[in-house]
Amino acid sequence: MEMKLSNKIGVIVDSFRLPVREGLLKAKEVGAEGVQIYAVSGEMDPSELRGTARKELKAYIESLGLEISALCGDLGGHGFQDRAANPDKVEKSKRILDLAVELGTNVVTTHIGIVPDEHSAVYEAMQQACEELSQYASSMGAYFAIETGPERAAHLKSFLDTLSTKGVSVNFDPANMVMVTGDDPVQGVRLLKDYIVHTHVKDGIRFQEVDPREVYGALGFEPMDHGKIAEMVSSGKVFKEVPLGEGSVKFDEYFQALQDIGYKGYLTIEREVGTKPEEDIRKAVEFIKRYR
């Protein structure tokens, strides 16, 4: 193996299914260098975590020798498909980005809903919301990073190309691609190379074709629900999330593609299912380290 990865390894703290500070300790224990944290509700909600509490959390993370790779600002539901709900969601997204910058990261990952194939009222609502977020993020030297999976990479790129700045970019998740759209992550990296600012390291298998709207929700379908997605990826009827190296993501080629495009950001481990998250995450850290 000639490739030598120099990217830092991150872990989604919430994957441990523990309170934030306990999860941070676990991330350190398993050998991660950075962490991604959900900042949508509970103790990390920007309206809950205020003032000195932010400084204290930042200092605590630094005291562990960790840094924040990104916050997760995924507000679920229909993403930005519903024009009536967008003003509140855009506002909350901005507050999550403010929190991210204060905690020392310039990336907030999110799902925006499935980008429709045709230019429609839904497409325009999403475009308008993303344009506003894109300009806001750019003004702070930061990014809202859309997670790959709901649509194929080429279509996502054509949507991003319509925005005036790269403030809305990409959080690349290869497993979502192989599980939901059957897209090729290696080709996806090359297509989206100008937009990738963060990645998730996850593996999966697809057993049958599925309408992405059944997974990620859309207007006229049930709204996106992380619990429902976790159930789908663990049941293994349509697709299944599996430990790294056991699925359809060709990591040799995938990591090589990230290197080829000059990606220097985090490889952040996400484990949404399984009964032993800590064990799986520990193995995932070791898996990535073999490429160093």
Assembly of the depicted chains: single chain
Distance between the termini: 10 Å
DSSP strand (E) fraction?
Answer: 15-25%
Tell me roughly what share of residues is in helical segments: 40-55%
User: What characterizes the major β-sheet?
Assistant: 8 strands, parallel, barrel
Count of domain modules: 1
CATH architecture: Alpha-Beta Barrel
Per CATH, the superfamily is Divalent-metal-dependent TIM barrel enzymes
| Unreliable stretches covering 5 or more consecutive residues | none
Q: Structural class of the secondary elements?
A: alpha/beta
CATH topology: TIM Barrel
Count of discrete alpha- or pi-helical segments spanning 4 or more residues? 11
Q: Please state the overall shape, judged from the principal axes of the Cα atoms.
A: globular
Q: In total, how many beta strands?
A: 10
Strand order, biggest sheet?
1-2-3-4-5-6-7-10
Could you give the order of the helices and strands? EHEHEHEHEHEHHEEHHEHEH
* CATH class descriptor: Alpha Beta
The radius of gyration computed from the alpha-carbon positions, rounded to a whole number of angstroms, is: 18 Å
Mean pLDDT: 95
Task: Write structural notes for this entry.
This protein has one domain (9-290): Divalent-metal-dependent TIM barrel enzymes (TIM Barrel, Alpha-Beta Barrel). With 292 residues, it is an alpha/beta fold. The longest helix has 19 residues, at 121-139. 41% of the residues lie in helices and 16% in strands. The chain is built from 11 helices and 10 strands. Strand 5 (143-147), helix 5 and strand 6 (168-172) form a beta-alpha-beta unit. The model has no long low-confidence stretch (mean pLDDT 95). An 8-stranded parallel β-barrel has the order 1-2-3-4-5-6-7-10, surrounded by 4 helices. Strands 8-9 form a two-stranded antiparallel sheet.
